[in-house]
Amino acid sequence: MTLAPWLIAAFIALIVTNALAPALRRFARRIGAIDYPGGRRINVRPMPRLGGIAIFIGFVAALAVAMVITRPIELVRSADSVFIRIPVSPRTDQGVLGILLGSTLLFLVGLWDDARGMHPAVKFLLQVAAAAILIPFGLTTRFITHPLTGEILSLGPFGALFTVGWVVAVVNATNFIDGVDGLASGIAAIAGATLFLAAGVKADIISMVLASCLIGSMLGFLVHNFNPARIIMGDSGSMFIGYVLGGISVMGLYKSVTALSLIVPILALAVPIVDTGFAIIRRFRSRQPIYLPDRGHLHHRLLDRGLSQRQTVFLLYLVSAFFGVGALAVAGVNRTASVITLGLIAGALYISARRMGLLDRKSSIRDV
Question: Which of 61, 139, 176, 214 is most buried, judged by most C-beta within 10 A?
Answer without folding.
Answer: 214
